[in-house]
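User: Show me a protein chain along with its predicted structure.
Assistant: Here is one chain, sequence first, then structure tokens.
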Amino acid sequence: MNIPHFFVYCLVFAVLFFGHVAAAEEPNTAETKPYAVVTVCVANMREAPRHAAEMATQCLLGTPLQVRERRSGWSAVTTPGGYDCWVTSGSIVSMTKAEFNRWIEAPKVIYLKNYGMARLAPSEDAAIVSDLTAGCVAVREKEDGRYVTIRFPDGRTASILSADCTDFETWKRETKPTAEGVLEKAFELMGVSYLWGGTSPKMLDCSGLTQHCFFMNGVIIPRNSSQQAKVGLSIDFSEGFDRLEKGDLVFFGSQRVTHVGIYVENGLYIHESGRVQLNSFISGNEHYNRSLATSLLGVRRFIGATEAPEIVPVAEHPLYQLQP
């Protein structure tokens, strides 16, 4: 072995050895900080702790999470919808139980516009701190005329228009799912592009659309279409669509459920397929989609299904409560 090769081997050994030691010494936040809150507008949650892994879902600013494990810049978390996934540690703030309870107790606002900006000062010309989207939640620091100063979980502060948000506690207490409310939110998203795993007005997948529309109406529902198809009240559609009501979820597939939409009326439904759009079950209608019309597998009613344990008001979800 010549000298240059010897030094190369030594360098490789040192990198591997000390890298292993550093990784082994990384604190396990699941033990010391078992909770977390999303601190970016939209956090991408993946199936494995690497950027190339499949995107599982997304969580919005202010979403509370349970931390199960931390590994090399990634955190394994459980979302309020019960989804286990991985998120970059920089997208969240890990918290002790005491820190998490302070977050829960703090006065907060929920952002209502589909898109907006949080700025460094109460001015439309001020520098941007972060983008925002409907469903983002942040601590309310103070009100200053037309503006509210908010605080992100990581401590950043910014200003947003008071008209674009509302008190989170009041919203949780008073917002109830209605067919009109769910459909109004869905139609606000008309034309939004498709993204596998997307759950925000930026981009969506089919079940991300339904989940987001129900969340903005005060309830948390399961994440995937196959999970959503198992809850709520089953509606018989064998003799047509007379029994369907506005806001019912319609499920499609061949051997299993792979797609979901929201029923509008008169055979029309709104869903995310390439973009959020209208289609119809009725042949001859300008929105008729034969492929989907012939693959309808089920209809479920979530609105009014108060006894379904999988349909949880935000105000009653354990992760939105003080932790004992």
